[in-house]
């Protein structure tokens, strides 16, 4: 009887495989579309630093930047609260502010000046004007000059916090234009002297903030 021969045996030759660490073994595919970058991976892991950097660049390019305009102030309305104390200084600051408004086409009938006794009283009046809905921004002008007592610190701090609170509570930009100086020479230098006119600078800030709120933040 013919015997059946056993099938020939198969001999497998082992091959050497190099295993990559789990982070490197991930197969990451990048799909770039117009302005977005998406990642898909066949295993859990991390995208390469280069891919992450590309994604961040694309995201940054899509960020919208908004700023107020200083080109023209026509049609915008402004209130200016001025402290009568140290009037020799505050009058010069006021003149600088009004002159700047005119340069940027703000009409005289769109500017209203309100006088208060001192810088301490500016905040409450500014808040009232902001809440009235009649103005795009409120300028706050004053001058606090250091004396022999701590009264200077109390008034300066109260004026700053008052103007800040006025803007927050009214939702209308209230611009801080109160000088806080060591002596009268410093104050005069900053109200039209060699250090410029801080009233004019305050008006420029008011124009930009009014434009920002009017055209972008409504």
Automatic annotation (TrEMBL):
SUPFAM superfamilies: Lumazine synthase. Pathway: Cofactor biosynthesis; riboflavin biosynthesis; riboflavin from 2-hydroxy-3-oxobutyl phosphate and 5-amino-6-(D-ribitylamino)uracil: step 1/2. GO terms for molecular function: 6,7-dimethyl-8-ribityllumazine synthase activity. Keywords: Riboflavin biosynthesis, Transferase. InterPro entries: LS (IPR034964), LS/RS (IPR002180), LS/RS_sf (IPR036467). Its EC number is 2.5.1.78. The keyword DNA repair does not apply. One of its GO terms (biological process) is riboflavin biosynthetic process. Signal peptide: none annotated. The keyword Transferase applies. GO terms for cellular component: cytoplasm; riboflavin synthase complex. It is an enzyme of class 2 (transferase). It catalyses: (2S)-2-hydroxy-3-oxobutyl phosphate + 5-amino-6-(D-ribitylamino)uracil = 6,7-dimethyl-8-(1-D-ribityl)lumazine + phosphate + 2 H2O + H(+). Oligomer forming an icosahedral capsid. Catalyzes the formation of 6,7-dimethyl-8-ribityllumazine by condensation of 5-amino-6-(D-ribitylamino)uracil with 3,4-dihydroxy-2-butanone 4-phosphate. This is the penultimate step in the biosynthesis of riboflavin. Belongs to the DMRL synthase family. PANTHER family: 6,7-DIMETHYL-8-RIBITYLLUMAZINE SYNTHASE, 6,7-DIMETHYL-8-RIBITYLLUMAZINE SYNTHASE DMRL SYNTHASE LUMAZINE SYNTHASE. This is 6,7-dimethyl-8-ribityllumazine synthase.
